[in-house]
Amino acid sequence: MTSTSTVHALDVDQLAARISVSRAEQSTRGCSNPIRLQGSSVHVDAATGEVVGTYSSDDEPDGHTYVRCGNRREAVCPSCSREYKGDAWHILMCGLAGGLGVPESVRTHPSVFVTLTAPSFGPVHRATGKKGHGKKAPCRARRDRPVCPHGRPLSCTRRHTDDDRFVGQPLCRDCYDYTAHVIWQWHAPELWRRTTIALRRQLARAVGMTVKDFRDLARLSYTKVTEFQARGAVHFHAVIRLDGPAGPDTPPLLDLSAADITAAVRAAADHVYADAATPDGGTLRLRWGAQLDTRTITHGAGRDDSEGPAHPEMVGAYLSKYLTKSTEEFGLPTTGRVRSASDARHAGATDHACRIIAAAARLVTVHEDYRPIARRLATLGYRGHPITKSRAYSVTFGSRRAARRTWRRRRAHLEPDAVVRDVLDLDPATDDQVDAVITLGSWTYAGRGYLTDFDAANAVRTHTLTRIRRAQ
Predict the structure, then answer these.
(1) CA–CA distance, 143 with 198 (Å, rounded to integer)
(2) Distance CA 132, CA 431 (A)
(3) What whole-number distance in Å separates Cα of residue 110 and Cα of residue 5?
(4) Which of 90, 113, 280, 403 has the greatest number of C-beta atoms within 10 Å?
(5) For 8-138, where are the E strands, in sequence order?
(6) Where are the residues of the annotated region Disordered (predicted)?
(7) Collapsing DSSP states into helix, strand and coil, what is residue 133?
(8) DSSP output for 253-296
(9) 404 vs 1, which has greater pLDDT?
């Protein structure tokens, strides 16, 4: 029989284990999948050459130095994903409302929120909006109840919810053009590039001048965010803004409104195309889908309005949300490489996703232009970045990370009533109070993840508690 003193000793040990946080978890600030490094650094005063500090991973309890993984995907690391989402929100919002070096006058520049979609590769099940008395409309109701050449119905009277497993799945898998799906997905970034070129030409034509003369009076700035639809095809959300020739610091010197930008976007989307080779030696002409949505961005709009003019904060929150997601919703692994449809099926991917990957794998073997798709099977053949922007649109991820490092270095020296934003806006290169210290280091990669389950559990616990405190 266990003695009372032993029970109390066990309770104390368990309590101590729960409230103690390892140094590894502290250094990564709740990262779920940190990077392990081994090496050392020496800090030298640039003026005197004196060594003012040293650090080595050998001084750590397990001989490793842990740094945050920085992964944007919430399924991989909620802590780093939240940080990435915050940085993206600042980039998006500063381009619409100013701040962090972007003048507030940018909010008066004409801006449009645009959504470009992929064309149809075959009918799929869809979640429809509410229609009358709050009931959802049927998926694909057809009075004639047609069937495809394979004898499968091309209508569906079910009322799918957004999380229904049928949403995005083809009505007939044999009719769905998986090859065209992958080819379009692969060339989608090129289609966007051509659209930005055509958009400048359309705006220049609207004011009766050449593109060269247009650039002397106005500048087109934009940012684009990629989202995967339920059918596995990407579509692009973009903020398009018209600036002066020097960027956001100056207003456009042309009499163009948001309505003019909207008309130019629609004209460009209707005419832009890209020709791509097919496995049988033919050519496939790629275009945007028929579904094109444009909304004027204005600070006078309601923050919760789903139609009409859009509020900048709604746009920023909407776009930054999708940056933390990828293809994990299709059952694809969040880490590691997908080498074949069999790998995807073994990981639990949907049948539709496996068929897209199988079509991509076939393209790799039959056409030289598509060999690089082998490295993009995990993203269903999409090769672009989750977010891109023009050079002068707003601040950068690098500037936000540098500001965060500056704040952590100076946190201990802040006055109790210091304004944190003032510190974040400091430019270390021009700040006279920054000590000129050179860091010389030698580091090697030693692996990923915590070495013990206790450290991993503590990281998740700390991140959860931080979210709870911020929500209060």
Answers:
(1) 41
(2) 61
(3) 73
(4) 113
(5) 35-45, 51-56, 65-67, 111-116
(6) 124-144
(7) coil
(8) SS---HHHHHHHHHHHHHH--EEEE-TTS-EEEE---S-EEEEE
(9) 404
Question: How far apart are alpha carbons 284 and 131 in whole angstroms?
Answer: 37
221 within 8 A of 235, measured Cβ to Cβ: no
**What's the confidence (pLDDT) of residue 19?**
37
Q: Residue for token digits 């009505």?
A: 171
The CA distance from 1 to 48, in Å, is 68
> Which residue from 295, 215, 206 is spatially nearest to 256, judged by alpha carbons?
206
In degrees and rounded to multiples of 5, residue 25 shows phi and psi of -70, -35
Alpha helices in 367-414 (DSSP H): 397-410
Whole-number CA gyration radius for the chain: 27
The confidence score (pLDDT) of residue 470 equals 58
Q: What is the pLDDT of residues 279-325, one digit of tens each?
A: 888 999 999 999 999 999 999 998 888 889 999 999 999 999 889 88
Q: Hey, how many other C-beta atoms are within 10 angstroms of the C-beta on 457? A: 14
Alpha-carbon distance 119 to 381, whole Å?
A: 16
Instruction: Give the model's pLDDT for residue 43.
Output: 85
Q: Is 240 in contact with 409 (CB distance < 8 Å)? A: no
Question: In the predicted model, what is the mean pLDDT of residues 170-188?
Answer: 96
Q: How many residues does the chain have?
A: 472
Q: Are 218 and 245 in contact (CB under 8 A)?
A: yes
- The helix/strand count (H/E) of the chain reads as 12, 11
- Rounded to an integer, what distance in angstroms lies between the CA atom of residue 54 and that of residue 78? 32
Name residues whose C-beta falls within 8 Å of residue 418's C-beta, 6 or more positions apart in sequence.
none
Give the separation between CA 187 and CA 287, rounded to whole angstroms.
10
Buried-exposed string 328-345: b where 16+ CB fall within 10 A, e elsewhere: bebbbbbeeebeebebbb
Mean pLDDT of the chain: 85
- Model pLDDT for residues 10-61, shown as the tens digit of each residue: 454 444 434 334 667 777 888 888 999 999 989 888 888 888 888 888 887 7
